[in-house]
Amino acid sequence: MVCLGNICRSPLAEGILRVKAEKAGLDVEIDSAGTSNYHIGEHPDKRTISNAAKHAVDVAKLKARQFSVNDFDEFDHIFVMDSSNYADVLSLARNDNDRRKVEMILNRVYPGSDMSVPDPYFGGEQGFENVFILLDKACDVIVSSLHKS
User: Fold this and answer.
1) 74-94: per-residue pLDDT in tens?
2) Per-residue b or e along 6-33, where b marks 16 or more CB atoms closer than 10 Å to that residue's CB
3) What is the tally of structural domains in the chain?
4) Domain interval for residue 83
5) Quick check: is 139 catalytic?
6) Is 8 a catalytic residue?
C-alpha cells in the first residue's frame, strides 16, 4: 500500500487489509510505504489512528517508511492511492515485471477507472471516514481475489 507520506491513506489500507486477511485465514505479508521521505519513522496521523480505531482497526504502532526498489522484490502486488503515487512508483520500476505489480487500488472496485483515493490530510473527519469506506471496499475485493489464488 503506497501513498505520499505513509501517514494517512496507506497505513489505513494496510490496517484494513491486515484485519480482513486475518479473518479470511490468509497468510500474506502486508506493508505500507510513502513515495516521499517526509514522515519516515513517524506514526500515522492521529486522525487516521482515530478513524481506524472506530472501525476496530489498529494502526497506532505502524511507522512510516519510504517506498524503495526492494519493494518490487518483496511484494507481488503494489497498490497505490493516486496517479502521482502511481507515477512515482513506476519511475523506480526496473522492468515490465515490476511495472505489472503496480495498480491503482480503486481499480479493484471500479475497474479501469484510475480513480484516486483522496488525500484526507487537509480535510476534516468526514474526509478520513470517506477514505476508510473506499479502502474498505477495495480491501474486500483484494481479499476475495487472494482467497481464489
Assistant:
1) 999 999 999 999 999 999 999
2) bbbbbbbbbbbbbbbbeeeebeeebbbb
3) 1
4) 2-144
5) no
6) no
